[in-house]
Amino acid sequence: MNPHLVLPLIIPLATAMILFVTGRRGNRAAVIGLIGFAGLFGAGVSLLIRVASSGIMATGPGNWSAPYGITLVADNLSALMVAITGLMGLMVFIYSLYGEMRGNDDGGFYALFHVLLMGVCGAFLAGDIFNLYVWFEVMLIASFVLLARGRSRLEMIASVKYVVMNLVSSGIFLIGIGLLYAKVGSLNMADIAVKLSESEADARLVLSTGMLFLVAFGIKAAVFPLYFWLPSSYHAPPLAVSAIFSALLTKVGVYSLIRTFTLIFNQDQAFSSRLLLVIAGLTMVMGGLGAIAQTDIRRILSFHIISQIGYMIMGLALMTPLGIAGAMLHMVHNIIVKTNLFLISGIIAHHGRGAYRIEQLGGLYRHKPLLALLFLVPAFSLAGFPPLSGFFTKYLLIQAGLETRSWLISGIALAVAMLTLVSMTKIWNHAFWKRAPETFEPMKTPVRLWLPAATLASLSVSIGLAAEPIFEFGRQTAGQLLEPEGYIEAVLGGR
Amino acid sequence: MEPFWAVIVGVLFAAAVYMLLRRHLAKLAIGLILLSNAANLLILSAPGLVRGRPDFVPEGAQVLGPGHADPLPQALILTAIVIGFGVLAFFLALMRRVFLEVSDLDVEMLKE
Fold first, then answer.
1. Number of independent structural domains in chain B
2. Searching chain B, which residue's CA lies closest to the CA of residue A159?
3. For residue B43, what are the domain limits?
4. Taking a contact as any Cβ pair under 8 Å apart, which residues of chain A between 226 and 265 contact chain B?
5. Is the pLDDT of residue A398 over 50?
6. What pLDDT is stored for residue A495 in this prediction?
7. Which of B87, B92, B104, B105 to mutate: most A Cβ within 10 Å?
8. Which residue is closest to A68 within chain B, CA to CA?
9. Cβ atoms A337, A389 nearer than 8 A
10. Closest Cα in chain A, distance from residue B59 (Å)
11. What is the ipTM, given to two decimal places?
């Protein structure tokens, strides 16, 4: 058993259990939680370094050999996602130490936060399709409780929508697993890939099951036309919860789409690629247009999650090395930048006495110039300005689109970047440039709030500046995903 | 056997979708219950149903011969039932809290 693959699951589990036993709130709980996330981030980074240097790793926690027992696998994509999950956990956790941002304490916020991240890491590392379902459920139940912890009417309504949509999605996922098992007779993803590539079966038979997975993961990833639950639930909970949801939960859906459509459902690529391109284009446009119509900062950002998911699906749909690399790097960029914008929106609301509606805000450029600068970095990065991370990943995606002569989707991607800029300008005009409301009183921003935001902003800048080595890593990852022989051998051959 | 179960599963899915589209939250919960039960039955029947042939490896043989019941779908369903049960329990608790907060269970109240 390889400890590097198991640690990202053990650490949050152990921390959550310690927190449940020793008391779920107060300073001691905060310190234990912080240590847990530092450990998770460390484990993620060490996993990433190992995978990058020595290739794909796989292990069977029950000491059952690969197609029979549960397998944990880390290739470049999984390891990178685990590392970034640890980082986001740490950053949002520091942010949540400021009480206003995590809501009331009696729901066991710290412990649930760790359970949520365990589910996310498990989903990234699962090498077995049913195990992926189980990790999804771990993640979901933690997110349900985090969302429904507050007792306000808004949170209750948001929870109902979120819970129902996700339960339907889980049901569809389960149906897909059942049918896939009926066809192939295996649950191990590498084994399924081998069996399907050896079989002479009609590709459409396999893809019909693939479509069930597309719908199930599409609901989680909030793609068109299944995105409507996201903007009506992400603005309700306390900000730290919105931030970690927007960072990771939809991306688990995108990750699962990338994994299944490169490894398992790669028989009729022309068909799935065309379908995914249509979905990607519509997702971008609807997200971008939706954001313009909103006036609550958190809702604007929620719609941007959707339009950015469109870019990731576009990269997957193109199925070229450049496209996949772009999709993966855009996912990483987006996790960092979107979380950062959510954290900053919390700081803006902190100065605006809890107001998230842009009409009620104002004057922050005059009174808080550094906060304005801090907002500009992720806002420009999201819109795709050089030299920030968003420019570089969007450039890769559009370049990939032009290379495959997909003119329409490339044009849409460029146009939606403009839409993004428009709604970022809207936040800027209202919250920063407008005159301050009369009740405005300047106050200091607590370190716990600006430190994670500033760290993430500097990370976005450094990704943009260190584009070359990161692109190299992305190309290597795309190679692993598009030619899954290495993945299959690591799982089935390395017993 | 399979055609019979296929019809049953199909009817269950139809009923689940119908209930999910109703206006009352309790009916929605029933829809979710039917959906998870239909999915479980589908997992049981899709890989093929075998009656009266438990999967014992015969003496002297290393592996199971063909034509035996497959135990794996049953293990999957067991997991799925437990998860579905837990999640539905959560949904019912949520429903209660919504009722206490909003004092209405019609989906109209989901409008803001």
1. 1
2. B94
3. 1-50+69-91
4. 232
5. yes
6. 41
7. B87
8. B72
9. yes
10. 22
11. 0.92
